[in-house]
Fold this sequence. Notes:
The complex is a heterodimer of chains A (254) and B (681). By secondary structure, chain A is of the alpha/beta class. Chain A has eight helices and ten strands.
Amino acid sequence: MELLRIQQIEKYYGNKSSLTKAIDGISFSVEKGEFVAIMGASGSGKTTLLNCISTIDKVTAGHIFLENTDITTLRGKELNKFRREKLGFIFQDFNLLDTLTAYENIALALSIQKVSADETDKAIKNVARQLDITGVLNKYPYQMSGGQKQRIASARAIVTNPKLVLADEPTGALDSKSAKMLLERFCYLNREHDATIMMVTHDSFTASYASRVIFIKDGRIFNEICRGSDSRKQFFDKIIDVVTLLGGDVNDAL
Amino acid sequence: MLFKLSVSNIRRSLRDYAIYFFTLIIGVSVFYVFNAIGEQTAFLKISENTSSMIELLDTMLSGVSVFVSFILGLLIVYASRFLMKRRNKEFALYLILGMGKSKISAILLIETIIIGCGSLLVGLAVGVGLSQLMSSLVANLFEADMTEYKFLISGKAIAKTAVYFGIMYLVVMVFNSIMIGKLKLISLMQSGKKSEKLKLKNPALCIVIFLASVSALGYAYYKVGWDTTHLSQELMAKMIATGAIATFLIFWSVSGMLLRVVMSMKKTYFSGLNSFTFRQISSKVNTTVASMTVICLMLFVTICTLSSAFSIRNSMNANIASQCPADFELYYTEHENDGLKYTDITEKYKTYGYDITEDFSEYVHFHSYLDDNFVFRDSLGEYVDVISEQYPFLDMTSQEIIVKLSDYNKLMQLYDRDTFSLGEDEFIIVCDFASIKKIRDDSIEVGTELNIMGKTLRSKYADCQDGFIDISSQHINSGIFIVPDSAVDEAFAGADYFIGNYPDGTRDDKSATEKTVVDKYDNMLRAWRETIPKNKYSIGLNTKITIAEATIGLGAIVTFLGLYIGLIFLISCSVIIALKQLSDTVDSMQKYEILRKIGAEEKDISKSLFRQTGIFFLLPLVLACVHSVFGMKFSKIVLEALGTEKMTESIIFSSAIILLIYGGYFLITYLCSKSIIREHK
């Protein structure tokens, strides 16, 4: 079933004299339960794309449909409601509130939606088990490792059962071990709970956990590969091939 | 180049500087307004008495100005250091780029000069405007004529303001330079990265400390509000210190408990942004316990000063109506060979060819009786030991004033007050000075027997009756014994009294009458003085007009001093709290961004911010109000003689002022914070 459909979107920055086309006509769609990675060099437009989907930014032209709702036409309160109920966010720098404990950080996402305290508690216990963070729930962000922080942020993103989880460089600030652990949790959520995840990264290793990788260059789709029945290692090699083809500084990340 | 940098710095951090600038303007204008009062009132048509009052007011205001400038100076240094801290990153950048510390100092110097001159100019302009309003307030308070009013600018006050603020700015510059000199690059670089460690305090300890400080506060309240008889200056100072420390500890423990309490209410805590809001408040209060205490105490002083000042003024004016029911009073006593020699004052006038009675439409002429064997100690009866133990400093040897019932009743008819009736062997004490009245009330009951002028009399009532003989502006009659006409012996005749009213007429008519009466008195006295040594007599003249002028003048002085100090304190604490809140908001910008990203409604975020600002402003105010309730109780006791009527009115009026300024700062702070967090959308 098709969850997200992106139709010829464009995003321009600047004015007439110096126009930057951050996104220059991108179209693709995401099925429900997919784990999609978007790869590209810095400046290729991948974060802009994610911002447009997450309604943080507005497109210059084109349409984005989530479950047949055109989110480019949403305004004000509708936008907030949409963001709150349909989307979950995971950021590179975690974006946890340092005055709140892990538990309270996760609970905030629910209390904003006016979920009762009892239900909140149940939901948090549940998601904490899935992400293996039960032990750190009462700690403050400054008492946790980067990996733990990012799993808390992920828990906050999925505890509301969003239609789509958007992750912007989720492993960017993590060491390789923590990154691996987080990505395995993503796979688990994707596999066992049918969560639809869309992840932006410039790291081939991170991307290799996805079921599909879309490559972007200069605001256009450059290539797209599916994992199919490949092992993760084989898929990783394929990604590396495309990255080499892509050139630029993506391979620097390796 | 440096100048350009300074200007652009100011322009860039205009938001941070807005409150600073705003405060400087208010400070300058208030300073100007109060220092310009002297010149501002020069045009008023007022009597000599009043103008000397205004002169006194002017002198007192300039004295207080020194104190005020000290407070303002501290505030400005605080605010500017605060703004400096916000710019650590910027200074670090300058240093890394190789700019010398002297250059940075120069930048700051230019900035201070620009801001100083700007605020001085704007503040003076505002002040000149406000002082025109002030003139009408002065005219109103002194009940003066304003027909010759004209727009006025006081050069003296401008110069004074410029000099005082110039010195303050100079101090700020010196402080800034010292601070720059001490800067270390590494700490500047890391200043932004402070990891916020918020540890919850031990709840048990918080509760213990809270209870301990509440009871300490209660004890202090009791000592100053009720148990005032044992209150020495030393004890008072101790109680004030106790109060201050208890205030600090209450904020300390409340900041720990508040969160615990809300957290235990799961339903509330996990609803909407409440968890975020309360964590923010808690961390804010946690880190500002000391300044909260200072603010709370300053607010307390403000509330008490304003309320007391207005109350004194109001009751003084009210007192004139009740305590000064006649136009003129003259009393006279003469001594001879260590004893009293009764002299009839009207006869004295006649000796020199004057008739005192001719200028009055009605008058009462009588004399009191004084008995060397009937002094204060004797009047207390058996109670004397208790009293002398309780009030060791009370003078027990002053002669009691005794008045014949028929004389007293005649006077009361003139005063239009209630008369008394007495049995052959009864007496009544009239007294309206509250603390003495209490002692006398304790010492007499119905039937208490006293020996007065060789006769044994019983008290008719169990307490003192309200009344007085001397016209005055206050309740200061410490006791007069009214006895039946049959009980007096002319051998004890004491002071002679002549009390009367001028013929009805306008204010000017009465003033004219008073002038002739007073001239006559002066002439008589001049001639008379040559015949009698100075220490052998005492003569006193009171008139309603001079009492009223003195009272109004005193009331106005109190009002102005109260307003001046109150306003400056109020502004100071508002500024400290507003700066703290604003800088916290800037530090928390990221957090609001996160809230937005996880989908919080703009409305909810604003609500959270409103609550944070509100509670932060409210917390010290609430405790200050509690303090004030008891502080006012104390000041009521102190101000007893001056009268404490219309207290409620005064409290309402001062609340209005506090609400206006403190509330105004709250609103500005909230709106500024809101624009800060909105900007980065």
